[in-house]
Design brief:
The complex is a heterodimer of chains A (425) and B (365).
Chain A lengths: L6 E4 L8 E4 L10 E2 L9 E4 L4 E4 L5 E2 L13 E2 L2 H8 L8 E3 L6 E3 L4 E5 L6 E3 L13 E2 L9 H10 L7 H5 L6 E32 L4 E27 L8 H7 L8 E2 L9 E3 L5 H23 L5 E29 L2 E8 L5 E3 L5 H29 L3 H29 L2
Parallel strand pairs in A: 12-17, 13-16
Antiparallel strand pairs in A: 1-2, 3-11, 4-5, 5-6, 7-17, 8-9, 10-11, 10-16, 12-15, 13-14, 13-17, 17-18, 18-19
Chain B lengths: L22 E5 L6 E5 L16 E2 L9 E4 L6 H12 L11 H7 L1 E36 L2 E31 L4 H8 L8 E2 L9 E3 L9 H20 L3 E29 L5 E7 L5 E2 L6 H28 L4 H15 L2 H16 L5
Parallel strand pairs in B: 4-9, 5-8
Antiparallel strand pairs in B: 1-2, 1-3, 2-8, 4-7, 5-6, 5-9, 9-10, 10-11
Classes of the chains: A alpha+beta (425), B alpha+beta (365).
């Protein structure tokens, strides 16, 4: 007998044969919800300390029933329908939110999907209320770092490095961390490509030198065609869904990796009282970014596959297979601190505690370090030069000076570049 | 051979054979095949193996009448052309192996398959696959950097399905001869879509081979065929393009058995040892089957003829060599030996051809 509870009849293309398919799983109604305390009527919000909902008034706690799905969580394909929807502009940002409790129409920064109403204090989760439909997040990683535990991580980070002002360690106060769910697109795919290139080989040969009338040895570069086949699997390749103008992409990139084993199915309860950004980099653009990065890596892989890295006329034919995507919310603490009148952005991976952010550069320290690195070489060179002039010997000291100058130069360039990169972060 | 050794098919006695009037039942003592033959063909050689003359059997006929036939589509003119093409390239053909002889001995033989009608009723379940397309990219890197081309790739999504089946199936084919599969391999497949209803008179001057397997022995085979057919229809009903598995569990009722007759042209030739070799043709497609043997005797004659001159030259050159001091006689004898060896080619060719025929062409089934 057909189990009518789990199966439903669908159209049959042959008379006398009935066809039943599994009933689709009922879609969870993600209406905007008001989170009211069942005990006192106060407002519930997500409490990072207890990893559940808690009443700010009476302290009543409500556990979140969510399913841990891990890295094998369902992934979506780039089907024609999905891509058409993505092309048609799903993911346009919302500007207006509606409070379920007091009916206030709230104008919020684009991309906000969860917030608290400033008028009634209600924590209204507006996941389904956007005028233009968004892809819904499929999974998220809950915060595992408690706000109270952030200090050791940030203290360690603020003390790291010598290029920063000494006063930073004493005066910088990074204690206003805001928990934020950042949208990420996670892509999985396999690439396979054939490459062909000319690879340089050093050939040593003997030749007869007619002027000296003797056999000599010389080396020359011989370009030989090589080819190969490379395959690589990418799993959960993360691309941020936030516009680079809003959150520093370099900082975000440095917060990776996240441990996907802790993914849970999306539940709006996790967002109550916690800011969350809807994506403003849509699926197509995020996939284009991922592919661009994969292409760059493919070139490196092709060169690595060659017998040596000196190649020219490289050509690659690459195919993708099993392309899948997921839309995830990943936990990040964001803070802005002030130092000497300037603002600096810091983020903490809400799962691993990894800290990365902007720090001011003390250029006096940097220049002193560069000068200190170059000075021994310069002095050695000058001393050697002087000794040659006065005593006729000192070439060795001059040579040592030149070597030290080279070492100091390399250190200086590296230090300068590092300082510039950190300042431009 | 005693006719009692011939296996008598399990058949019912009928007063008259309305679908093949004037026919009689005969069997081959050599290959044990049983035929209904017209009186004009009585006591002839077995039209399949040609090893023995047919012998009379009791007048027992099947209750399952022929329902459909695959019509003969190769006419007499076409037949000659195809035989000519078939014999082309046979070296030193056996004297009897000619188009004229084959045409003269040619006869039509109909051989049977079972047609089963049945009612199926039961449940089915399975995993079927639907095609869908995903957008992907082919990327090429060269002198001008990366060039990305958007392409569509077809993938298959497998889903479980189940349902009920209540269908009547007509004319599902089931083998009626133990050698059915081998015969199809030898003659090539018949197009059953071009079949027509059986009409009395179509068998005139022909022989009809009787089924070698009885319906009661074929119950399981018939059910498998019906199930296979039902599963094809189930796939069609789901609208899917692929399947991993489809299982039907239910009843097979009201099985009705009739015959489907397939035509062959059958003829033979006699080799130089006096043995008969069948040459058969699928009368629908014209595909021919049979060993085409070369005459070793003919090839040997050619070899003797070609070797005569070199032998003569060799003997003369040897005589000259005895009475002369010149070396040229030795050269001439050497050439004569070489030519003598070349004259063996016809014999080798014929032997090699026959060996290849025997290795690749098995006995007609």
């Amino acid at each position: 007998m057909i189990n009518q509870q789990d199966f439903q009849e669908v159209k049959s293309f042959v008379d006398g044969i009935s066809v039943f398919e599994p009933k689709p799983k009922p879609k969870e109604e993600r209406q905007g919800q008001s989170y009211t305390c069942p005990q006192c009527g106060g407002h519930l919000s997500y409490d990072l300390v207890i990893s559940g909902l808690a009443c700010s008034h009476c302290g009543h706690q409500v556990a979140i029933q969510s399913r841990k799905i891990g890295p094998t969580a369902e992934k979506q394909e780039f089907t024609i329908d999905t891509m058409k929807i993505a092309d048609q502009g799903w993911g346009k940002l919302r500007n207006m939110l509606h409070c379920q409790q007091c009916d206030a129409e709230l104008s919020y920064p684009q991309g906000t999907v969860a917030t608290s109403c400033p008028y009634c204090g209600s924590n209204s989760v507006n996941v389904s209320q956007s005028e233009q439909a968004l892809f819904q997040p499929q999974a998220l990683i809950p915060f595992t770092i408690k706000p109270a535990n952030l200090k050791p991580f940030t203290d360690q980070w603020i003390h790291d490095g010598w290029m920063h002002p000494s006063a930073l360690k004493d005066s910088a106060r990074i204690n206003n961390f805001v928990p934020f769910y950042i949208p990420f697109w996670a892509f999985s795919t396999q690439i396979a490509f054939n490459w062909e290139a000319e690879v340089a080989h050093t050939v040593t040969e003997r030749y007869y030198d007619s002027s000296s009338k003797s056999w000599k040895t010389r080396t020359r570069i011989e370009w030989r065609w090589e080819n190969g086949n490379v395959q690589k699997t990418y799993t959960n390749y993360l691309v941020s869904g936030v516009d680079a103008k809003r959150l520093n992409p370099v900082i975000l990139k440095n917060l990776i990796p996240f441990t996907m084993d802790n993914l849970v199915s999306f539940d709006p309860d996790y967002l109550v009282g916690i800011n969350a950004n809807a994506y403003d980099v849509d699926l197509n653009n995020a996939w284009a970014t991922a592919k661009s990065n994969i292409r760059d890596e493919a070139k490196d892989l092709a060169v690595a596959d060659a017998s040596n890295s000196n190649v020219r006329n490289l050509s690659i034919d690459m195919n993708y297979s099993n392309e899948r995507w997921r839309y995830l919310f990943l936990p990040v603490f964001i803070a802005v601190y002030q130092f000497e009148g300037k603002s600096f952005q810091v983020m903490v991976n809400g799962q691993t505690g990894k800290v990365f952010g902007q720090k001011p550069i003390d250029w006096t320290k940097v220049w002193l370090a560069i000068a200190g690195a170059l000075l021994p070489g310069i002095l050695g060179f000058l001393l050697g030069l002087a000794m040659i002039g006065v005593m006729g010997s000192g070439a060795l000291i001059m040579l040592i000076g030149v070597v030290m100058l080279f070492i100091g130069g390399a250190f200086s360039i590296n230090t300068y570049k590092k300082a510039r990169d950190l300042e431009n972060l | 051979m005693n006719t009692s050794e011939i296996p008598t098919p399990q058949v019912e006695l009928h007063q008259s054979l309305s679908w093949f009037p004037g026919s009689m039942m005969e069997a081959c003592p050599a290959c044990k095949r049983v035929f209904l033959v017209s009186s004009a063909r009585s006591k002839q050689f077995c039209p399949i193996c040609y090893q023995s003359e047919l012998e009379r059997q009791p007048s027992l006929v099947r209750k399952e009448v022929p329902e459909m036939v695959a019509p003969i589509e190769i006419d007499q003119q076409n037949l000659g052309e195809r035989l000519r093409a078939f014999l082309d390239g046979v070296p030193y053909k056996t004297h009897d192996l000619t188009v004229e002889n084959l045409l003269q001995r040619m006869q039509v033989v109909w051989w049977p398959q079972w047609l089963v009608d049945a009612d199926l009723e039961g449940e089915w379940s399975g995993t079927v696959g639907f095609d869908y397309q995903v957008r992907t990219a082919k990327e090429r890197y060269g002198d001008e950097g990366w060039n990305s081309q958007s392409v569509l790739r077809t993938e298959i999504r497998y889903e479980p399905r189940m349902g009920l089946l209540k269908r009547h199936y007509d004319n599902i084919l089931v083998p009626a001869l133990p050698t059915d599969k081998a015969r199809i391999q030898q003659l090539g497949a018949y197009d059953h879509n071009r079949s027509s209803n059986f009409k009395v008179g179509i068998l005139e001057q022909a022989s009809v081979q009787m089924p070698g397997i009885e319906p009661q022995e074929l119950q399981e085979v018939a059910e498998n065929s019906l199930r296979h057919y039902a599963e094809k229809e189930i796939l069609q009903a789901t609208g899917a393009q692929h399947h991993r598995e489809i299982n039907y569990q239910g009843t097979y009722k009201n099985l009705n058995w009739t015959q489907f007759l397939l035509p062959i042209y059958s003829s033979y030739y006699v080799d130089e040892k006096g043995l008969r070799h069948p040459v058969v043709m699928n009368a629908q497609t014209g595909s021919l089957y049979g060993r085409r043997l070369a005459s070793i005797k003919k090839a040997r004659n050619w070899t003797i003829g070609l070797a005569a001159l070199p032998v003569l030259v060799f003997l003369v050159s040897m005589l000259v060599a005895v009475f002369s001091t010149s070396n040229s006689a030795a050269c001439v004898s050497g050439i004569a030996i070489l030519l003598g060896l070349l004259s063996l080619i016809p014999l080798f060719r014929a032997a090699s051809w026959n060996r290849r025929q025997e290795e690749t062409i098995s006995q007609f089934q």
